[in-house]
## 1
Amino acid sequence: MSSIADRVLDSGLTTLDTEANRIDLTSAESTTFAEATSSQTLGNATSISISAPADRTASGGGRKVTLSAVSGGSITASGTATHFAISDTTNSRLLVTGALTASQSVTSGNTFALSSLDIGIPDPS
């Protein structure tokens, strides 16, 4: 059975902890920074907090970071939010995308909130 040391997994996750500074609600799963922050964004928040890496207790073990709950995000376009995208705007990098638990219609000028969520890397099988 192969294994990857926690230190190796943590190196990738630490990038989220130290470089991520924006989360966008998007109308589709973004594959580029420009999609996440421009063509697909419906709104964003720039006051985000991501924890240091820790043990992942979900099936498969591994390591995770946790995005703290977000409140007061600004909706900048109307549409249906289906995904989130976390970016490093200093270096114009898309770091993580994922599906929202449920899609939601949003209206420009409103605000949004998100519950905390874990982002992890499972141990190899």
## 2
Amino acid sequence: MKKNLIKTAGVFLLALLMATAINAQPNRQGNWGMANLDLSEDQSEQITQLRTEHYNTMKPLRAKMAEIKAKERTLLSEETVDLKAVDKAIDEQTDLLNQIRKLQVKHQLAVKDVLTDEQVMKLEQRQRHSARRGQARMGRGQGP
């Protein structure tokens, strides 16, 4: 009886610790740093809708990019490489990347339009901080 009580308490304690650890993890779902901007319900709904639309627009473009890259790898793995075909695949990737980047900027601006000036300021500060951390992790941005 006493062993069962100890086991139950141990399992409960373990579950509590796991739940606490999970909640303490930073949000890494790609939500562009929206976590602590104090969004209103309306803003949250608008941003969710924008993100869903953006995802649905980007998904086929990313699939197309993967297809073109696979085609390039196949062309480069052939015994006799057709340079014109490789160049065409590279040009297709460049055009598609240009299109993707323009859509990303359009999406970012649409999200910013939903935010207040104070929220935009917080978001930009967070992005600058994240960019600096990313550069430091990659060995860049370090002085002499």
## 3
Amino acid sequence: MFKWEIHASAMSQATSIDVWNLWKDVETWPLWDHELEWSNINGPFKKGTEGQLKPKGWFVSKFRIISMEEGKSHSDITEMPFTSVIFNHSVTPALNSQVNISHSVQVSGLLAPLLWLTTRFTLKKGLPLAVERLAKIAEEQSPKSLSL
């Protein structure tokens, strides 16, 4: 089976809950992920819930949350014919009251080589920028920063 993966991470002064609150507000994902035109979810942010998103220059995609650890991590999958795209998101405590925010994309299946050719550069550029923006927005919205 064909498979590839891209990772990105950023450090933030925000709390894990600050990051979690941004993740679970699916409609605002395009604020920190500029590769998205829009996104929505059909119910509560929990395992099994489905949603849709529209990447710039691509078709509307359905996703489903496949795993979740409240306040720490979640994963969602977009299934295509003979191929799946899994986005993993995690936030973990780090030194100096910081958190490490990590996102990864795993693509596997028969169409993975085609997606490697067509989306790899966009993801390699966009994923780190999205994580950095998420970290910055989480810091700006954190009660920690408001009390300084």
## 4
Amino acid sequence: MYYDFGNMLFTDIRTSGSDLFSRKFEAYIEFVAMSPAQILLIDKPISDVMKDGCGVFGGTGIAQMRSGQTLCVKTMQGKFIALTSRWETKPVEIELVAFD
């Protein structure tokens, strides 16, 4: 799945605006940032994450999100997005919050 947050498109095909790519596995969802987008994995539920907490980026550009964790994304356009999901056995729907 590709995520284009500038156009709020979620597709199976990469577009020029794609910020992230993800694949679901048994125990986690793997995310890969498409440069210049950046990601940061936080071990907190999305309800406890504010824009300030999503503002420090670095690392490899690859993250494995497990149930209850939050993935912060700095998009190509400089917007901040937070993604999360909670599951018992396999990853399911992803919840998204866009920070102004």
